Amino acid sequence: MAYAANFIEGFEILPPKINESEKQKFGKEIGNEDNFYLEYSNFSLLHNPLRKFAYYTAANIDGEKFKKITRKDIFPEGRDKWQKDNRISGEYQLGHELYKAVRSDFDKGHLTKREDVQWGENENVAIQAARSTFYFTNAVPQVDRLNRGIWKQIENYILHSEVVKNNFKVSLFTGPVLQEQDPCFVTKVNKKVLRLPYLFWKVIYYLKNDKLFYTGFLTSQKGLLEKKRIIEPVNRCLTSPQAPFLNFKDAETYQVNIALIEKLTRLNFTKAGEVFKNNKPEKLILAGIDIRSGKEMDFTNVSMNVKL
């Protein structure tokens, strides 16, 4: 079962809509955006064939049916198996030609995390759902400090301390901010210049006192890409005026209002109540946890200043 708009009972949370100017970029050769709406187990995504990354992924998470499984349960042979999705042409996707390219000092960062969708009536269903997250259409290049750091642990905190612990149901949207002025990867891929996204966002829908709310998060890896010399100096690959850069510190996560995410992504989200209305992004801090260890985290005594 793919992403379901009516997953949270009594509410319809439709996938975000791209605007008309974005739709016009597709053209007759590519077809309309419906051809690139791909359904997986417990999540779906809208792929951008021009940028070759997803506009967003949309996941349903059921805390009551969550199954604790390991990577070895998913891949008994011991190695992750990433693959392209044969439902769309390979020319619109990026696989090993990107992630094994010269100077590709970054991870295959899951948009929808495998833990988010590893739920179902039994463990086998959860394993199949988790395995379905290992498509390149669900990946973006993310520097390890971002992919394995607080960005990942913020979501783990919400999943384990809120959703699973309280048997909640939530709907989660995740994606890169795809801008025309994104920096250029230093290595051409398939002999073409490739722009790498540096801003990433999440929007979570949840119930509180039987009312629907949502909240948003943003993080950046721009400076990390520069320090690792993964991207060209900005002035070398600009084809349009540079947009004002949001003053986000690298690998930190900020809670933001939905209007900011809509402005950056040009996506329109289903409206809901919003607890965090501050126009100034708030840096999120996990207390009681060491995110540097790389081990599986215990969230028993962890707290976070997120507003839900």
From TrEMBL:
Record-linked InterPro entries: DNA/RNA_non-sp_Endonuclease_sf, Endo_G_ENPP1-like_dom, ENPP1-3/EXOG-like_nuc-like, His-Me_finger_sf, Non-specific_endonuclease
Residues recorded as binding Mg(2+), renumbered to this chain, are 147
Q: Where is the active site?
A: 110 (proton acceptor)
GO MF terms listed in the record are:
endonuclease activity; hydrolase activity; metal ion binding; nucleic acid binding
The residues forming a coiled coil are: none
Where do the ENPP1-3/EXOG-like endonuclease/phosphodiesterase domain residues begin and end?
A: 40-282
Can you name this protein?
DNA/RNA non-specific endonuclease
What is the organism of origin for this protein? Answer: Abyssalbus ytuae
